[in-house]
Design brief:
Layout (H helix, E strand, L loop, with lengths): L39 H4 L2 H6 L5 H8 L5 H12 L9 H6 L9 H6 L29 E2 L5 E4 L34 H13 L5 E4 L9 H12 L6 E5 L2 H4 L2 H5 L1 H16 L3 E6 L9 H12 L4 E7 L7 H13 L2 E8 L13 H11 L10 E6 L4 E4 L5 E3 L4 E5 L8 E5 L7 H7 L2 H19 L1
Parallel strand pairs: 2-3, 3-4, 4-5, 5-6, 6-7, 7-8
Antiparallel strand pairs: 1-2, 8-9, 10-11, 11-12
Length: 454
């Protein structure tokens, strides 16, 4: 039998397959005129980031100066008037934006609205489309799934994503939305704790907001210990976008990280699960600073998972999503979910069709290990909860209507999801402008779905 000769050249790894390891580690922020004299030692502190966070167009203009035309600032000003979220963006994110092409940049797209790219809302879009307030037994606590609740201890974040699903409450009032208030008061928290303790079926609590990054160190520990010491609670998750938008806090806010570590260690002692859930949408958001922060959390034994949002112009290309998933895995962040964009007002330009997302999922599955492969899910309008995007009962790409059922959350109910109108034919877009016609299409879709679930 002839020995098989292996061609060594065929074993050479293509450089492109290692792109996920190429993390940015230059002084990228110095491309912003207002940060040109800032040394890395100063820039990479959470105190510098907090002091220099941009909350209005005047500050943005002072930092960027003339690297963008005046028309860009006007575009942002007009965009903010139609946005559900106030402006709040960290120096770190500003430095990562490609200001030579700001209109195409995926990070700018997520945090700085421009009127020239905004489009009219879908007729079925709703504020609080997930019905979080309707499923709230006490203020700041949503109990939808039998064994899990969402606890919202505060209503602020280190940055404000313009696409926030909780735009009904998070951040300051805007011209478009007067917010519900979730002030960080222990008295309000105690009402939530009392409810959690009274429901023996609850085992899993998500601590979100707002953003748990904005909780004081003592409150991170207070909330964690309070929940872990309840006999019924087995799992808690701190939800934060902080690792994406301000990783410097992990590196320089030692009391906060120590408090989180103590909660994780208590969970381990009690044989309970404590993890961090974070949120990255594009591979450009992951830098050497991210890895340094994650290295520290890894040393502390802290597990981090990622929940991504599928967005037009940000990550709706297979290659981008593949790179994101592999880069997250490289820095020890486990890709968990990819959400189809929630149907909230003011950001219709960011939504994708269900079909487009399912096509992307095909390219992601099999690209890396299964435990680092996210599930693509629709968090259904009306409070049906998360459904696997493939599990629809009915989907008509012509009308753009999909219908899901959720028998374990709300038995017997049906939950529609709607593709963006811009992805439909001109004739169908016109039909959607008629309330009578749109109602007819929805009723037909629901009827067809009922036939499937009988």
């Amino acid at each position: 039998m002839e020995s098989q000769i292996i061609d060594a050249a065929a074993l050479v790894t293509p450089v492109s397959s290692l792109e996920h390891r190429a993390l940015r580690q230059d002084d990228f922020w110095t491309a912003v005129p207002g940060f040109r004299g800032v040394a890395a030692e100063e820039f990479n502190t959470h105190t510098f980031q907090a002091r220099n966070t941009v909350t209005n167009v005047r500050q943005l203009r002072d930092l960027l100066q003339n690297i963008v035309p005046e028309t860009f600032y006007t575009d942002v000003e007009q965009g903010l008037k139609r946005a559900p979220m106030a402006l709040r963006i960290s120096p770190y994110l500003l430095g990562l934006i490609n200001w030579q092409q700001p209109y195409q940049d995926p990070i700018r797209t997520q945090f700085l609205p421009v009127a020239s790219q905004q489009v009219a809302d879908h007729p079925e879009l709703r504020l609080d489309s997930l019905h979080e307030r309707k499923d709230s037994p006490v203020l700041g606590l949503t109990h939808r799934y039998s064994d899990k609740a969402l606890f919202l201890p505060l209503d602020s974040c280190p940055v404000y994503c313009r696409f926030c699903t909780r735009s009904y409450a998070i951040g300051g009032d805007t011209e478009m939305v007067e917010k519900s208030k979730l002030t960080p008061r222990i008295q309000r928290w105690e009402e939530a704790f009392a409810y959690i303790e009274s429901r023996p079926e609850l085992e899993d609590i998500v601590i979100s907001g707002g953003d748990s990054y904005n909780l004081k160190a003592e409150h991170i520990q207070l909330i964690g210990e309070r929940l872990l010491n309840m006999p019924n609670i087995r799992r808690i998750r701190y939800a934060t976008k902080g690792l994406c938008v301000l990783p410097q806090k992990i590196l320089t806010d030692t009391p906060w990280v120590d408090a989180l570590t103590r909660v994780v260690e208590l969970g381990r002692e009690l044989h309970k699960d404590v993890v961090v859930h974070t949120h990255f949408n594009h591979p450009n958001e992951i830098t050497a600073v991210t890895k340094e922060a994650m290295d520290l959390l890894t040393e502390r034994g802290i597990t981090v998972r990622c929940q991504t949002v599928l967005q037009h112009g940000v990550n709706d290309q297979p290659a981008v999503m593949q790179l994101l998933v592999r880069r997250l895995s490289y820095v020890n962040i486990h890709p968990y979910y990819v959400y189809f964009h929630d149907m909230v007002p003011g950001v219709e330009d960011l939504r994708t069709s269900l079909h487009a997302g399912l096509e992307i999922e095909k390219h992601v599955r099999g690209y890396t290990a299964g435990f680092n492969t996210p599930s693509f899910v629709v968090d259904t309008m009306g409070g049906g909860g998360k459904r696997d995007a493939h599990s629809y009962e009915y989907y008509d790409r012509t009308t753009g209507i999909a219908v899901f059922s959720s028998p374990s959350v709300k038995p017997g109910a049906l939950f529609p999801y709607f593709d963006p109108l811009r992805t439909l034919s001109a004739e169908m877009q016109q039909r959607w402008q008629s309330p009578c016609e749109s109602r007819k299409m929805i009723e037909q879709a629901l009827a067809a779905a009922r036939e499937q679930v009988r």
